[in-house]
Specification:
The complex is a heterodimer of chains A (112) and B (577).
Chain A: E1 2-10, E2 13-16, E3 25-30, E4 35-41, H1 50-60, E5 65-67, H2 73-81, E6 85-87, E7 92-93, H3 94-103
Chain B: H1 2-12, E1 20-25, E2 30-33, H2 35-41, H3 45-48, H4 65-73, E3 77-85, E4 91-102, E5 108-117, H5 118-148, E6 152-157, E7 162-165, H6 167-173, H7 177-180, H8 185-188, H9 198-206, E8 213-218, E9 224-235, E10 241-250, H10 252-262, H11 275-288, E11 294-298, H12 304-314, E12 322-326, H13 332-340, E13 341-342, E14 354-355, H14 357-360, E15 365-369, H15 376-388, E16 390-392, E17 399-401, E18 405-410, H16 414-419, H17 425-431, E19 434-438, H18 448-463, E20 469-470, H19 472-480, H20 486-500, E21 505-506, H21 516-522, H22 534-549, H23 554-561, H24 565-574
Parallel strand pairs in B: 11-18, 11-19, 12-15, 15-18, 20-21
Antiparallel strand pairs in B: 1-2, 1-5, 3-4, 4-5, 6-7, 6-10, 8-9, 9-10, 13-14, 16-17
Helix pairs in contact in B: 11-12, 15-17, 18-20, 22-23, 23-24
Classes of the chains: A alpha/beta (112), B alpha/beta (577).
């Protein structure tokens, strides 16, 4: 299963925070292999209606789950259409989140 | 939370979106309708969400069939025309792109249609066109102003490269716009030694306020020009320094004129009422109208250079340089280099190319003082220059034209020198086209009082003294002395008197000791009214006589003298009447 984690780098550390479309990077994590597969730069970040294009990009990449802080409605609708699981309201260093996520055997527990 | 708010703010800015975006699922239902789409079509989001895409894209319109095609095939369409139905029933033409929403190895989920109203694009285009015209108009206006400036002006970027160069700058430097653009500024604005002037660079770099600096630069043709420079930083829209603007003006003409004015060498300022001097003036009047070579002869100290400068200042060349060379001041080898200039490496010590006095004189006047003392070897070269009006720098091959007027002077009797084989006869005839002979001071004794008054004014200013009178005896002594050193010696004697005089009048005892024999010889009586000038004595006499005539009646006296009563009272007090 491919998970896209929306992060911004703060003090050289990837943090899950803010709006989905404002993410600097989408870290693609394979939950079966428990490893990172890809780090996608969000080139749409400053574009108009970027949430639509970001969602379209992740759909095209075959993502199953998206982890972010907040998510825009338009993106939510597209994820819903593509049956992509969206986990919102996360504000945490990416590695802390993954540690908790993996430990709980893929069952999401909110950290905050 | 703060970070989330920042992110939201970033999103809010997207309300400025101009591209309408619609997402349609595989069932032809609208699932996303962005703010720009609301603005363009007039539909609210809730009016269209979950409704059929036909509400926007009527399938009956042929061009809209691409929407269905994209949903069926997943094909991408770019820059296509779509007709979009608006809420008010109108149809608008839009330029659009359609991309599929598709997951790997899966069926199409839907499509995303990005569109823009063509009318909006046209409005934007027209608005930009109008703005562009305004910018071009403004640019042309600024360019016209830039090129109409009398001051040379150029701009440089942060790498010191010239980015603009106006007409006046072309005129002053001799470099054209195309030659100057892109070059480092010192390549078209070199200092006197032909290299980058680091002091000037520092001045341009650090200069913040309106301050002026004078420097000499080399023009493209190698000639020197004195310029006054100003500089100011160039800022971009964000207030960051992106370069500098440098303005400069050719001040050689002004400088040259002001130098002359300071030196008070105007023709009319030459003191000389005596008959010999009137003859000199008459000759000078004729000479100034021509470009003929002039030979000024006369004893040392008779004012040969003063006359030469006066001729220059009253001629049509007055705005050009006046270059004076004392030929006795240089050794033979140096004199040649000094007159004609030299190329770099022409001889030991010639570390740089230097223009000679002939070149520096340009279209002005070159005054060769003490021509009679020029060595024969240089005389040959001078003769050639005067005949051909061309010369080469020492060690150089390039021929330079002589445009300057030549005025020469000597205290020697050149005809005698010719007989002695010390002066070339051919050169003599070349320089002696017009001869102005200056009389010795003794020959023009009538001018001595005028000259004395002139020097007294000069030294009062210089020494800050108030010596306005000279006793009749002192003047008598001065008039009887032979003045072998001529005006220069007279000036020296008056200066001597100023140094030793502590009253307001020069007496015989203030004169130099070499004049003592004259004092003894004249057997002078005591000076009376020493503190009054001759003019004041006349005034005193006149007031006395008028007062006597009107029996001391001041009103009648003042009226008869044509002065105010209070003036008469003041004068009576002054003369102790």
């Amino acid at each position: 299963m491919k998970m896209a984690i929306c992060v911004q780098y703060i003090d050289n550390s990837p943090i899950i925070t803010g709006y989905f479309s404002a993410a600097e990077y989408f870290m693609i994590y394979n939950t079966y292999e428990k490893s990172y597969k890809e780090k996608i730069v969000n080139n749409f970040r400053t574009s108009i209606s970027s949430e639509i294009f970001c969602a379209q990009l992740l759909i095209k990449r075959g993502i199953n789950t998206v982890i972010c802080g907040k998510c825009d409605n338009n993106a939510k609708k597209l994820f819903s259409e593509a049956k992509i699981k969206l986990i919102e309201n996360i504000e945490s260093p990416m590695n802390d989140f993954l540690f908790e996520y993996v430990k709980q055997d893929k069952k999401y527990l909110p950290i905050i | 939370m703060k970070r989330w708010n920042n992110s939201k703010k970033l999103l809010d800015n997207k309300l400025l979106a101009s591209d309408g975006i619609v997402a349609i699922n595989k069932d032809y239902r609208i699932i996303v309708f962005n703010d720009a789409a609301v603005r363009i079509t007039g539909f609210k989001e809730n009016d269209v969400l979950n409704n059929s895409s036909n509400i926007l894209f009527k399938p009956s319109i042929e061009s809209n069939s691409l929407v269905s095609k994209a949903l069926l095939t997943g094909e991408i369409f770019s820059n296509i025309s779509l007709i979009i139905n608006c809420k008010n029933g109108k149809e608008l033409s839009a330029i659009a792109s359609i991309t599929p929403l598709i997951q790997p190895d899966q069926d199409i989920i839907g499509i995303i249609v990005v569109f823009r109203d063509i009318a909006e694009i046209e409005t934007l285009y027209n608005s930009l066109k109008e703005k562009n015209s305004e910018v071009i108009e403004e640019k042309n206006k600024l360019e016209t102003i830039f090129n109409s400036l009398l001051e040379g002006t150029f701009t440089i970027d942060s790498e010191w490269r010239i980015t603009s160069f106006n007409k006046a700058a072309e005129g002053i430097t001799g470099f054209s716009l195309s030659e100057a653009i892109g070059k480092k500024y010192w390549q078209v604005f070199p200092s006197e030694d032909g290299h980058e002037d680091l002091q000037l660079k520092a001045f341009i770099e650090d200069h913040q306020q309106t301050l002026l600096r004078e420097t000499t630069i080399i023009r493209k043709d190698g000639s020197r020009v004195l310029v006054r420079i100003n500089s100011a930083p160039l800022m971009n829209a964000n207030g960051n320094k992106i370069g500098r603007v440098v303005t400069f003006e050719d001040i050689s003409v002004v400088k040259n004129l002001s130098n002359h004015i300071e030196e008070r060498f105007h023709f009319k300022n030459i003191i000389g009422r005596s008959k010999p001097m009137q003859q000199v003036f008459s000759l000078m009047e004729n000479v100034i109208e021509t470009d003929s070579t002039v030979l000024i002869t006369g004893q040392s100290g008779t004012g040969k250079e003063v006359v030469a400068r006066s001729i220059h200042l009253n001629s049509r060349r007055k705005s050009e340089p006046f270059i004076a060379v004392n030929c006795t001041a240089f050794a033979e080898t140096l004199l040649e280099s000094e007159l004609f200039g030299h190329e770099k490496g022409a001889f030991t010590g010639a570390i740089r190319t230097k223009p000679g006095r002939f070149e520096l004189a340009g279209n002005g006047t070159l005054f060769l003082d003490e021509i009679g003392d020029v060595p024969l070897s240089i005389q040959v070269k001078l003769l050639r220059v005067l005949e051909n009006r061309q010369f080469e720098r020492v060690g150089g091959t390039k021929t330079v034209s002589l445009n300057a007027r030549i005025i020469t002077a000597t205290h020697r009797n050149l005809e005698k020198e010719i007989l002695n084989g010390k002066f070339r006869e051919d050169l003599f005839y070349r320089i002696n086209v017009i001869n102005i002979h200056l009389p010795s001071l003794y020959e023009r004794r009538d001018d001595i009082p005028g000259l004395v008054t002139h020097f007294m004014e000069k030294f009062n200013t210089r020494f800050g003294k108030e010596i306005h009178y000279i006793s009749p005896n002192a003047l008598k002594v001065i008039s009887h002395y032979k003045w072998p050193g001529n005006i220069r010696e007279l000036e020296n004697a008056i200066e001597h008197a100023f140094v030793v005089c502590n009253s307001d009048a020069i007496q015989t005892e203030h004169l130099p000791s070499r004049l003592q024999p004259i004092i003894d010889e004249l057997n002078l009586s005591e000076d009376t009214n020493t503190s009054n000038s001759p003019l004041q004595n006349i005034e005193l006499q006149l007031i006395k006589e008028t007062l006597s005539k009107f029996e001391g009646n001041r009103s009648k006296t003042a009226s008869a003298l044509g002065i105010d009563k209070s003036t008469l009272w003041r004068k009576m007090k002054k003369y102790n009447l």
